[in-house]
Amino acid sequence: MEPFELSLAAAAAEIEARRLSPVELIDSVLARIEATEPALHAYACVTADAAREAAAHAEQEIAAGRHLGPLHGIPLGVKDLYDTAGVPTTCSSAVRADNVPGTDAVAVERLVAAGMVTVGKTHTHEFAFGGITPTTRNPWDTGRIPGGSSGGSGAAVASGTCMVGLGSDTAGSIRIPANLCGTVGLKPTYGRTSRRGVASLSWSLDHVGPLARNVYDCALVLNHIAGFDRLDPATVDVPVPDYTDGLDRGIAGLRVGVPANYFFDQVHEDVATAVREAIGVLERLGAQLCEVTIPYPDQVLAAEWGILLPEASAYHQEMLRSKAHLYTDDVRLFLEVGELVLATDYIKALRVRTLMQQAWAAVFDEIDVLVAPGMPVAAPEVGAAEVAWPDGSTEDVTTALVRQTSPGNLTGLPTLALPVGFDAAGLPLGMQVTGRPFDEATVLRVGAAYEAASPTVGRIAPVL
Amino acid sequence: MEPFELSLAAAAAEIEARRLSPVELIDSVLARIEATEPALHAYACVTADAAREAAAHAEQEIAAGRHLGPLHGIPLGVKDLYDTAGVPTTCSSAVRADNVPGTDAVAVERLVAAGMVTVGKTHTHEFAFGGITPTTRNPWDTGRIPGGSSGGSGAAVASGTCMVGLGSDTAGSIRIPANLCGTVGLKPTYGRTSRRGVASLSWSLDHVGPLARNVYDCALVLNHIAGFDRLDPATVDVPVPDYTDGLDRGIAGLRVGVPANYFFDQVHEDVATAVREAIGVLERLGAQLCEVTIPYPDQVLAAEWGILLPEASAYHQEMLRSKAHLYTDDVRLFLEVGELVLATDYIKALRVRTLMQQAWAAVFDEIDVLVAPGMPVAAPEVGAAEVAWPDGSTEDVTTALVRQTSPGNLTGLPTLALPVGFDAAGLPLGMQVTGRPFDEATVLRVGAAYEAASPTVGRIAPVL
After folding, report:
1. Phi, psi of B172, deg, nearest 5
2. Residues B405/B374, Cβ–Cβ less than 8 Å
3. CA distance A257 to chain B (A)
């Protein structure tokens, strides 16, 4: 087994025991990048020299007895939406081709302070405004999309070119690639993690979080990136627990909500079957299943787009005036549409969101977590504009990708995406677990319980 | 001295000692209403029979030993924007001429539960959308406006036709009439008081609070109307202290900010002189004066209107489609303008507000309260469209009325308006005291200290 194939926890244990040097690990990952990048294009930029240097430094520090903990020497992929000091940060857009920030985004700064080694910047759908990530391919089948917008991080984590990938999630951009690439991905509660230094898509829906190979790794990363930041006005001063603590405590007696509507309404049979089986696993582990009704199902996409479009256009307005020709056509069109939205319509979307949040809070009076299908389909083919349904209807790909994940952005509730197996073609299928505000601990505990009972989590894509 | 002339505290003491019956008090107030209403038109509707009945009930309860406390039997005027069960609630608009709610607004419900007796609904500028209150006159000079939008409550409290008037404040609507009519008025912190059952003007700027004859009375009322309400998503679950507690503790050592810019930039000489004298009083009482710079002075009105206009239009949109002809011309025009605001511009106003809030928070690192002129002028004449300045310039009346008060709405900080004397024409002049979020206690303490040293607070207008 090559070092890049180790789980984070295994690699960390080897490093701590000095049986594995961070330099060996990073070299193994860089070699893996060299082998897979021609097929995947997960990285906007690979910082091999800086990574080798950081790994050498980590090796020295650890040799000198200054081991910083389980993230020390672990390879990190950073979505190209995050500022990285001295490293190009393009948001995978020609608009920012020349942008080299002076400082790291808060999340990067904290993970680097914990000893992580950045191996490169992972591709995003341009400015995080899309679910496809057209630059990048799915490591389970390079004729398929990785999902997005954090598609580079999804492809990189799944193929073993980093152990943790940072993502951001405004309509599903962490959970879509996590599900389509078969990784774990966590969108924390709105306000749990600072977004400072991460380009905004829609400030009232944006979340920052990790993609990783398993739930424990997500929890480890969350320990470092969670917390109040007075310069991100959305963050809340709620204590940060140790999220790895009690992760293996089991879920006996936990009330697990199963949606009677919305989330199972239009999903591929393979997805429904795999998620129902996963729910069966939770029940056998002692969870108490409760059927719940999802409130305001018909308002989800109207509210999501009614908020996202104008907020994105407000952020991009000046750049759109001076550099419109540098945007890709689909993103430019979205930004132009957002400029036409009236304030009264945006305000109505905000009001619907508030009603939705209140109604979801009432649902969580009856349950501890909600479990639902993640993506309605396995990864679509590259270039496909539509998803075809058995009843003969078709659905725009972007709509199919965001309709299962947008409730998590509108409600702001913490949501974990995790794999539940593969379809007949070998493509990953996924589910999502949603919890109460700032109760990432329970969401992660459910994921960990499922994962321990499931053989499919954490597998590395072969990239054949 | 007639009962209506008593201070609330004095009336409460007389009632508790059973030397004054609530029936006598209400009869005295109703007689005062009869005498002054032809000149003032402070009330949209007087509920004389219900008030007499409630007073008789209070009399019985108190006689039976069930005295509810200092508000029991005290006459209350309710701004016609507040729902009142079984009593017409028109928002002083033909649009709602036939509206009779089934339940009381939360604030009314709580004050009635504390024993207060509603004597009627006080006029508002139509739907709270204006600072004039054209229906109503100023009790110190009936050729002058009372200010608004809570003009009826201002005129009523000042003239002795109620002891407490409920108001609401979106751009100054409690503080404008308080200053122009010479009463005390408190806009609490955003989220301190529930707005449930009060017609919205601009939900992210709306505040509910009292007008009263002195600071102690405001504190008493705040004790009852403050607190969390899960059905007003803006309210915050912060403990409610007894606001009358420690009100007379003095202000020795308190750091009182005096603005070097903005608030004194264009105010009438009489106002500046009276407020500077009041600040001198605070200094003699032991306060430590600190000059501070008001941040973003040039963005105040752009942010206020950029938020208020579209939020109001969103609230009114359906009514405007079906009943446009029933609005007054000025309000209809405002609502039509608000429908044209783009979401991107509204979002920019929201972002400026956030920057403003952060910068004001930094100012309050250096000071405990900020003291500033309230209205830039004494009450303008009825029908005046402009205020004339000594340099020959003129200013739209509405702009003159809202520019000193809007910072309190944008920042959400608690602000107390209180009288600081009269000009040569006998018109009241006022100042405002602003504090930290949820620190109404300090703001009220400053007001109480000033009031105790000043002879002018609490005088009743003669309405000649």
Report:
1. 135, 10
2. yes
3. 24
**What is the length of chain A?**
464
Q: Which residues of B touch A345 (CB under 8 A)?
A: 343
Eight-class DSSP state of B460: P
B430 SS3 class: strand
What does the pLDDT profile of chain A (464 residues) look like in tens digits? 899 999 999 999 999 999 999 999 999 999 999 999 999 999 999 999 999 999 999 999 999 999 999 999 999 999 999 999 999 999 999 999 999 999 999 999 999 999 999 999 999 999 999 999 999 999 999 999 999 999 999 999 999 999 999 999 999 999 999 999 999 999 999 999 999 999 999 999 999 999 999 999 999 999 999 999 988 989 999 999 999 999 999 999 999 999 999 999 999 999 999 999 999 999 999 999 999 999 999 999 999 999 999 999 999 999 999 999 999 999 999 999 999 999 999 999 999 999 999 999 999 999 999 999 999 999 999 999 999 999 999 999 999 999 999 999 999 999 999 999 999 999 999 999 999 999 999 999 999 999 999 866 678 999 86
CB contact, 8 Å: B113 with chain A?
Answer: no
For residue A339, the distance in angstroms to the closest alpha carbon of chain B comes to: 6
- Single out the residue of A399, A55, A414, A453 nearest to residue A250, CA to CA: A453
Q: Which residue of B has its CA nearest to A339?
A: B344
Q: Give contacts of A314 with chain B, Cβ < 8 Å.
A: 343-344, 347-348, 351
Burial of B66 (0-12, 13-18, 19+ CB in 10 A): exposed
Nearest CA-CA partner of A169 in A226, A131, A142, A140: A131
Chain B residues within 8 A of A347 when measuring between CB atoms: 310-311, 314, 346
Q: Which of A311, A343, A354 sits opposite B342 (nearest CB)?
A: A343
Q: What are the residues facing B138 on neighbouring strands?
A: B141
Selecting among A28, A93, A168, A173, the annotated active-site residue is: A173
Q: How far is CA B11 from CA A304, B6, B69, B103, B418, in A?
A: 55, 6, 12, 29, 21
Closest approach of B215 to chain A, Cα-based (Å): 33
To the nearest 10°, report the CA torsion of B13, B14, B15, B18. 120
Q: Write down the domain spans for chain A.
A: 3-253
Q: Where are the beta strands (DSSP E) in A317-426?
A: 369-373, 386-388, 394-396, 415-422
Does residue A204 have an active-site annotation? no
Residue of B nearest to A306 (CA): B343
Q: How many CA atoms lie within 13 A of B268 on its CB side?
A: 24
What's the complex ipTM?
Answer: 0.88
Would residue A393 show up in a list of annotated catalytic residues for this protein? no
CA distance B237 to chain A (A): 14
Using DSSP, state whether A75 is helix, strand or coil. Answer: strand
Q: What is the reported pTM? A: 0.91
Cβ–Cβ < 8 Å for A434, A175: no
Nearest to A252 by CA among A286, A207, A201, A222: A286
Q: What is the DSSP letter of B149?
A: S
Residue A464, class by beta-carbon neighbours within 10 Å (0-12 exposed, 13-18 middle, 19+ buried)? exposed
Determine whether B173 is an active site residue. yes
Q: Give, in words, the CATH class of A3-253.
A: alpha beta
Cβ neighbours of B340 in A, within 8 Å: 342
Residue of A nearest to B318 (CA): A344
Partner-chain residue, chosen from A345, A354, A357, that has the shortest CB–CB distance to B343: A345
- Is A343 in contact with B348 (Cβ distance < 8 A)? no
Which residues in chain A touch residue B341, judged by CB atoms under 8 angstroms apart?
Answer: 342-344
Tell which of A315, A341, A342 to mutate to test the B interface (max B CBs under 10 Å): A342
B271 phi/psi in degrees, rounded to 5 = -65, -50
